[in-house]
Design a protein that fits this description.
single chain; mainly alpha; ADP-ribosylglycohydrolase fold
């Protein structure tokens, strides 16, 4: 049991990190990415050093992970260290990873950090003493959904508790109904995988249930339905068209910008297109383009949890470890052991 679950956790973290690092070079569209790099994305490459072409990831070394991975691993570390699932746990994890990642970014000669717009604004407010219940009330982007995958392992198969934990993870930075809905979708998909579900359709159904439960939480903003957009993305993935055309349809009709209601449904579309193959899933996700690193991170986390660490090419682990020194094997084992102590959910 321990070996199997640690393999799932490590696979989830590796899929997230590999999808993130491989996708971080992606540009605003598939066509623009091919124009600049000469071909679609098939492996880890070095991004442009020109901020006019890529103002977000320029100058990052090949294989570097971004905010998605740093945020997810900070959640792992905070739960292991604090032994509880609480608002304070998620406040601490967010401040810690943003502090580390921003310092790393500036050391590389860049003039910006790695945090996204919602997280950056919220962290500035947290540091100035604003209540965490207030700092995230305008967060409508996808950062919380990208870093939530570890939360899915806390309560395997228990969607209500999983949504409770996902909501807590959102409060400091993304405390809106749409962000919580999208974040709960990812967490609930991982939760049923952790409970032993292997059918992709059933996993996606759990994601839609999580999205519906999550949309009743947080500050209300106007937005489309995350659950229905997941449905539409999966329909596009199941149209019978080849991967490139189906991916283009997802880009055109679902979108892949920073909004939580775009990237999260698009990631489930890529997950459906990948049919459980880790490489195909990640390559499909990152070549939708737009917010490619987050697409790769979410789809990679889903397929990694489903298939486990051993299903990935050795190059994926070697590249992200060499570039980032993440020590995913140790983090996965320590996180599993912490979960076995039943850390309390402090609402």
């Amino acid at each position: 049991m321990r070996e199997c679950m640690v393999d799932k956790i490590r696979g989830c973290l590796l899929g997230l990190a590999a999808g993130d690092a491989m996708g971080m070079v992606g540009l605003s569209s598939y066509q623009r990415t091919v124009e600049i790099y000469g071909a679609e994305l098939t492996t880890f490459i070095t991004p442009t050093d020109d901020p006019a072409i890529d103002p977000v990831h320029y100058l990052l070394p090949r294989g570097t992970v971004t905010d998605d991975t740093f945020g997810a691993l900070a959640i792992v570390d905070a739960i292991v260290e604090r032994g509880e699932i609480s608002l304070d746990t998620f406040v601490e994890s967010n401040i810690n990873w943003v502090t580390y990642a921003d310092a790393l970014s500036y050391e590389l000669g860049r003039n910006r950090g790695l945090a996204g717009p919602s997280t950056s604004a919220a962290i500035a407010k947290l540091r100035s003493g604003v209540s965490p219940y207030e700092t995230g009330k305008h967060g409508v982007t996808n950062g919380s959904a990208a870093r939530v995958p570890p939360v899915g392992f806390l309560f395997p198969g228990d969607l209500e508790s999983t949504v409770d934990a996902a909501e807590l993870s959102c409060i400091p930075t993304h405390n809106t109904n749409v962000a919580i809905s999208a974040t709960a979708a990812v967490a609930c998909a991982i939760s049923v995988i952790a409970a032993g579900e292997t059918d992709i359709a059933a996993i996606i159904e759990a994601a839609k249930q999580g999205a519906e439960m999550g949309k009743a939480r947080g500050h209300i903003v106007y937005s489309p339905s995350v659950a229905k957009r997941i449905d539409l993305a999966v329909q596009l993935a199941s149209s019978g068209k080849d991967r490139r055309q189906a991916s283009q349809d997802i880009y055109d009709l679902i979108g892949s910008d920073l909004a939580a209601y775009e990237v999260v449904p698009a990631s489930f579309g890529a997950f459906a297109l990948g049919k459980g193959d880790p490489v195909d899933t990640i390559l499909t996700a990152i070549n939708i383009c737009g917010d490619s690193d987050t697409l790769g991170a979410i789809a990679g986390a889903l397929v990694g949890a489903l298939r486990g660490f051993k299903a990935f090419p050795a190059e994926y682990d070697e590249t992200v470890e060499e570039a980032n020194n993440l020590n995913l094997a140790d983090k996965a084992a320590r996180f599993y052991d912490a979960i076995q102590l039943n850390p309390p959910l402090v609402k």
